[in-house]
Amino acid sequence: MNESIMYQELINFISKWVNLSETDIKALQSKLSLENYDKGDIIMKQEQICKSVKFVISGIYRVYQLKDGKEITSYFNYTSRNPIVASFVSLLKEQPSNEIIECILPGTVISIDYTQWKSLYEISQSLNTFGRLMAEFNYLLAIERIESLQFQNASDRYESFIKLYPDLLNRIPHHYIASYLGITPESLSRIRKTAVRE
Predict the structure, then answer these.
(1) What is the pLDDT of residue 5?
(2) What angle do CA 69, 74, 78 make, to 5 degrees?
(3) How far apart are CA 115 and CA 134, in angstroms?
(4) Which of 16, 130, 156, 189 is a good FRET partner for 113, with 20 to 30 A between their CA atoms?
């Protein structure tokens, strides 16, 4: 996939939410850059300040935190769901991140400096609207995640995971999934066996 096609992927995604003029597209493309990552690459380290927003073209990325040496996965980013990669608290507050972002399946992202992204709001009402819609979208994802952890048992969380991330189950290590569900890999294995029998 060449560079112009990759940029068109982002344009197509934004165009599902708002109408972009040719001026909007040219202004946006002038600020974009491509980044390629291999499995295991750390896109953002803990204590680093997040200064860019990235859009997934290919690959799978994991956002997690370390708590007493234990990895706690917050969510996964890939094209089919949640394709915008950033540590949003760090980005918006301009403070060191508690999160680590890791590439777990090789791929490419389109990156834009957040200061430059915000500058587009001044010249494009459509991109301004898109930014607001993405903020609302990410808020809903966060609430969905919180309610899952607070009100669902492990089996229900597993069922929700399958619905939300149907094509991840056989593509990423299961201990990442267990971390996302807030359970041990052994518990995940038992839940999966029970689900197969049912």
Answers:
(1) 85
(2) 125
(3) 16
(4) 16
pLDDT, tens only, 8-24 = 999 999 999 999 999 99
Q: Is residue 183 situated within a structural domain? A: no
Residue 99 in any domain: the answer is yes
- Residue 71 buriedness (CB in 10 A; 0-12 / 13-18 / 19+): middle
Give a yes or no: residue 37 inside a domain. Answer: yes
CATH number of the domain where residue 54 is located: 2.60.120.10
Determine the Cα–Cα distance for residues 105 and 113; give it in Å rounded to an integer: 23
Per-chain mean pLDDT for the chain: 91
pLDDT tens digits for range 99-121: 999 999 999 999 999 999 999 99
Helices (H) then strands (E): counts for the chain: 8, 8
Q: What global pTM score does this model have?
A: 0.89
Distance CA 59, CA 110 (A): 12
Q: Given pLDDT bands bounded at 50, 70 and 90, which one contains residue 144?
A: confident
Do residues 117 and 51 touch, judged by C-beta distance below 8 A? no
Question: For residue 29, what are the CA distances in angstroms to 1, 36, 49, 172?
Answer: 17, 18, 24, 32
In a domain, 32, yes or no: yes
